[in-house]
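ok so i was messing around last nite and threw this chain in just to see what happens. nothing serious, just curious
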Amino acid sequence: MEKYTYRPVRFYVTVFALTWGWWLLALLFRDTSVMFLFMAIGLFMPAVTAIVTVLTSKNKMLKEDLKRKIVGFYRIKPLSIVKAVLLFLVCVVVSIGISVLFGGSPEQFSFTEDFSFSIAGTSALLTMVLASIIEEVGWRGYGEDAVGSYHTWFRESIIFGCIWACWHLPLFLIPGTYHYTLKEMGALYVINFLVSAIPVDFLQTWVYVKNNRSMLATAVFHLFLNVMQEKINISPETKCIETVVMLVAAAIVVAANKELFFDKSHIGNLLEVQYRSDESEKK
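result:
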């Protein structure tokens, strides 16, 4: 099969231009019925860009890889997803515990009655489900591989974590979003959100690579993170503690999976390595 060369700069310039364009348009139509429509269109842009990039590539291996990432259930290793979920829960519990030790409310160990945001009156849960699935199609469909094909997964996690954080920036300006609520609370909470994207992406990368680059696996984990961050009654101050705890957890995951994060065998031939792995799994 013909070798494919990933083009990360072209992909991310396109994604940012399209996403930010629609979200800034939504800002112009704030408090109107079309704002949510423009928000949703912007959310779809990474996925649309990834799919169009793959389908117009004329590369059979790249197209087959996208298909297998979506429907290749044989790639999934359920235990690795469970481990990641449990690790995240431990991080939350430890963070709340530290908060309580320093005077935080013990009620943080409970669940919230409702979600903290709603966009144009739509269901926050539905928004998070769609966001988790749609984002993964874009990021894991092409975006993460576009960076990972040139770097170790350790460096890729840092680079993509920064890109992913910056992608959210316009949301801090749009009323009704979770990000807008953070901005209203103060700069510290905005910075905390942006920084937290890096350790979270280390966990996402761990799930992604451990599951043979399965999009389904990362979508499940992404949704779990989003829902738990909303339903656990954790305070904004404790979320700052949580970021530090997550950084420690990410460091532990890297130390325990050095071969995964520092392996260089996939650099320059990511699709070929995955193709051989898939063929081996199916036998």
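not much to say yet. DSSP finds twelve helices and no strands in the chain.
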